[in-house]
Amino acid sequence: MTDSDLGGVPQSAPYWDDACKHLAKRDRVMRKLIPKFGQGRLQSRGDAFTTLARSIVGQQISVKAAQSVWDRFLALTTNGSSRLMPADVLALDAPQIRAAGLSARKVEYLCDLAQHFQSGAVHVGQWQEMDDEAIIEELVAIRGIGRWTAEMFLIFHLMRPNVLPLDDVGLIKGISLNYFSGEPVSRAEAREVGDAWSPFRSVATWYIWRSLDPLPVDY
Q1: Predicted confidence (pLDDT) per residue in 156-167, tens digit
Q2: Is 6 domain-assigned?
Q3: Domain that holds residue 17
Q4: 8 in a structural domain
Q5: Please, what's the b/e burial string for 140-164 (b: 16 or more CB within 10 A of its CB; e: otherwise)?
Q6: What are the tens digits of pLDDT across the range 86-103?
Q7: I need a labelling partner for 142 at 20 to 30 A (CA). Which of 5, 114, 119, 183 fits?
């Protein structure tokens, strides 16, 4: 995914250096991982609606297939611009959107997303003042967006510093390998490890992902 795909210049998390110092001081695994992948930074791109629409398009298909469908969908809705607006989606009927290669269910999800943004049911302008759970509650009310997608949005788009996505397979696997010598890890054990990372659990999660895949995680 490139910056132009999401229509924005990447913005870095302002708390990153402080978080790294805090985690390295308090956690033996982070003390080892952070210098290994120290040049990377969490970055936010694009706007909220485009980011969430892209997450719906990409569900349960390969990255390559998702890119192809996304490009066709953008061509339908934006006349070649990378900036997607709710009104662009609502102006099309379902058969037109399906022509981009989207399933009937994903068309319903995209239209529901557009309606939530167009009607003001999601309070984008107030998100900076709202806590994480309040934003998750707004997002999961949209069809096709579950808690995991909402948490990824908090981490990668809003750059919230203290999210612990316990439904993420990579996080659980990474905790198992880095803290439990590869032994199976329960949700409670993973939460206990994550609680020690507070108030920078998002940053620690990012480094756990990096320990599994050296390429920077993007969303």
Answers
A1: 899 999 999 999
A2: no
A3: 13-44+163-212
A4: no
A5: eebbbbeeebbbbbbbbbbbbbbbb
A6: 999 999 999 999 999 999
A7: 5
